[in-house]
C-alpha cells in the first residue's frame, strides 16, 4: 500500500513555478495540465492578450475557449518589444522552474529570451519550446496550425469514408498531442534536474507529436511497407471492429480474437459463423468484412442501438452506443471520474471546466481557479519580483 499521509491534500506540482509565454492551444493546454496539478502558472500576455481571448464561443464578452485552456493561471501583461518588458521577463525566468513558449523558432531570441541565453543565466531552468515542426529540420520556420499538421502527418489521409475524401479529425488533436508531450517533456526534465541539478531545453514539435500518436500507422508504414488507407468507422486490420447500424442509430463493437468471435457469433444468433472458413481468423474476417457486416446489420435491424449493446454486453462482448459530446461529458462515468469541475468566475459566475485526467493517490481534484482577466496579476507579481530582488535575504 502507498503511504498517502505524506501526500494527502497536496497536489503533485505544488511549489513548481511555470512562466508561460504560450498562446492559442498547444502551449496553454500543456500549462493548464500543470496548473490542474498545483503548479503556479504565470501567463505572460501581450497588451492585446492571447489570441484565444478573441475566439468564440463567447458568453458576456468572455471567450469560453480561453476559459477552458487557461484555467487556474495568473495573467501578467508584458510588452516583450520593450526593454522594460524584456527585463521583467528575464527576472521572472530566474524565479521559475519551467518556461514554456510556443513561438516560431527564432522569435524568443529576437526578444532576448532565447533558450541558450536563459539556460546559461538560469542553469536549473527547464525551457520548453513548442512549435509546429521543432527547432531543427527543413520545415522549422513554416507556420503551423492544427489542420496543417493533420494534413502533413498522414492523419487526414487515413481519416474518412473508404470511397470519400480525406477528412479532418473532430478536434484539434495535433495541438492537444503537442501540449501533452510538452507537459511530459517538462516533467521528465524536472525529474532529471533532481538528479543532475541542471535543467534542459526541451524541443517539442506538433508534427512529431501527432506522427508519434499513431503507432498502428507507424508499424504499417515503417515495418510492413504499407500505406494505410481510409476505412471509415471500421478498423483497418481487424473485424468485426467498428461501427454498425441498428434500427435507430449506430453501435460499435470490438472483436479481436477467435474466442471472442465465437461468443459474438452466438450472441447475434449466428453461431455457424464461427465455423465459416471466411471468418476463421482475424485477418480473414477483416478481408471478408463486407460479408460479415451483412450478418451483423441483419441481426441489428430490428433492435435499437441500446438493445444491441445490451445483448452484446450481456455476452461480455465490448460494445457501445454512440454518444454526443454533451452526453459523454454528462455521463455517470465522467461524473464519477471527475473529468470536469466547477470554478467561480468574477463575471460569468459558476463555470464547469475540464480537468487533467490522471488520478494521483492522496491528491484532491477540483477546487481550482478560473482563467484570469487580462493582466489581473501584473501589479502584484512585478511588485513582489522587484521587492525580492532588492531584498534577496528576505526571500
UniProtKB/TrEMBL annotation:
Record-linked SUPFAM superfamilies: CoA-transferase family III (CaiB/BaiF)
Enzyme Commission number(s) from the entry: 2.8.3.-
Biased composition (Polar residues): 377-389
GO MF entries: transferase activity
Region described as Disordered: spans on this chain: 356-395
Residue ranges of coiled coil: none
Pfam families the record matches: CoA_transf_3
Enzyme kind, highest EC tier: transferase
InterPro entries tied to this protein: CoA-transferase_III_domain, CoA-Trfase_fam_III, CoA-Trfase_III_dom3_sf, CoA-Trfase_III_dom_1_sf
Record key words, sorted: Transferase
Gene3D superfamilies in alphabetical order: Crotonobetainyl-coa:carnitine coa-transferase, domain 1, formyl-coa transferase, domain 3
The organism's place on the tree of life at top rank: Bacteria
PANTHER family, sorted: SUCCINATE--HYDROXYMETHYLGLUTARATE COA-TRANSFERASE
Protein name: CoA transferase
Organism encoding this protein: Tritonibacter scottomollicae (Epibacterium scottomollicae)
Taxonomy of the source species: Bacteria, Pseudomonadati, Pseudomonadota, Alphaproteobacteria, Rhodobacterales
Amino acid at each position: 500500500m502507498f503511504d498517502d499521509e505524506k501526500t494527502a491534500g497536496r497536489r503533485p506540482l505544488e511549489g513548481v513555478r511555470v512562466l508561460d509565454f504560450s498562446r492559442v492551444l498547444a502551449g496553454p493546454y500543456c500549462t493548464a495540465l500543470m496548473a490542474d496539478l498545483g503548479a503556479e502558472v504565470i501567463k505572460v500576455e501581450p497588451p492585446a492578450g492571447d489570441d484565444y481571448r478573441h475566439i468564440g464561443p463567447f458568453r458576456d464578452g468572455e471567450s469560453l475557449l480561453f476559459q477552458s485552456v487557461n484555467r487556474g493561471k495568473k495573467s501578467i501583461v508584458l510588452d516583450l518589444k520593450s526593454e522594460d518588458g524584456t527585463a521583467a521577463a528575464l527576472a521572472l525566468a530566474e524565479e521559475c522552474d519551467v518556461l514554456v513558449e510556443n513561438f516560431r523558432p527564432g522569435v524568443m531570441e529576437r526578444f532576448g529570451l532565447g533558450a541558450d541565453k536563459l539556460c546559461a543565466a538560469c542553469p536549473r531552468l527547464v525551457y520548453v519550446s513548442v512549435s509546429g515542426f521543432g527547432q531543427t529540420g527543413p520545415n522549422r520556420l513554416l507556420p503551423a496550425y492544427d489542420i496543417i499538421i493533420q494534413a502533413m502527418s498522414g492523419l487526414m489521409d487515413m481519416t474518412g469514408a473508404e470511397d470519400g475524401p480525406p477528412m479532418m479529425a473532430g478536434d484539434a488533436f495535433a495541438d492537444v498531442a503537442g501540449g501533452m508531450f510538452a507537459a511530459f517533456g517538462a516533467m521528465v526534465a524536472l525529474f532529471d534536474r533532481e538528479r543532475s541539478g541542471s535543467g534542459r531545453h526541451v524541443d517539442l514539435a506538433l508534427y512529431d507529436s501527432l506522427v508519434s500518436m499513431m503507432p498502428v500507422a507507424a508499424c504499417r508504414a515503417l515495418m510492413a511497407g504499407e500505406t494505410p488507407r481510409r476505412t471509415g468507422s471500421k478498423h483497418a486490420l481487424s473485424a468485426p471492429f467498428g461501427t454498425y447500424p441498428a434500427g435507430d442509430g449506430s453501435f460499435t463493437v470490438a472483436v479481436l480474437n477467435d474466442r471472442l468471435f465465437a461468443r459474438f457469433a452466438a450472441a447475434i444468433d449466428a453461431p455457424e459463423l464461427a465455423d465459416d472458413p471466411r471468418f476463421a481468423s482475424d485477418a480473414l474476417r477483416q478481408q471478408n468484412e463486407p460479408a460479415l457486416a451483412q450478418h451483423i446489420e441483419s441481426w441489428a435491424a430490428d433492435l435499437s442501438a441500446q438493445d444491441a449493446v445490451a445483448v452484446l454486453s450481456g455476452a461480455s462482448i465490448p460494445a457501445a452506443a454512440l454518444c454526443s459530446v454533451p452526453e459523454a461529458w454528462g455521463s455517470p462515468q465522467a461524473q464519477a471520474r471527475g473529468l470536469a469541475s466547477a470554478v467561480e468566475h468574477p463575471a460569468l459566475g459558476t463555470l464547469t471546466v475540464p480537468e487533467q485526467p490522471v488520478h494521483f493517490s492522496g491528491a484532491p481534484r477540483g477546487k481550482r481557479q478560473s482563467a484570469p482577466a487580462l493582466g489581473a496579476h501584473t501589479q502584484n507579481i512585478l511588485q513582489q519580483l522587484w521587492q525580492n530582488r532588492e531584498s534577496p535575504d528576505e526571500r
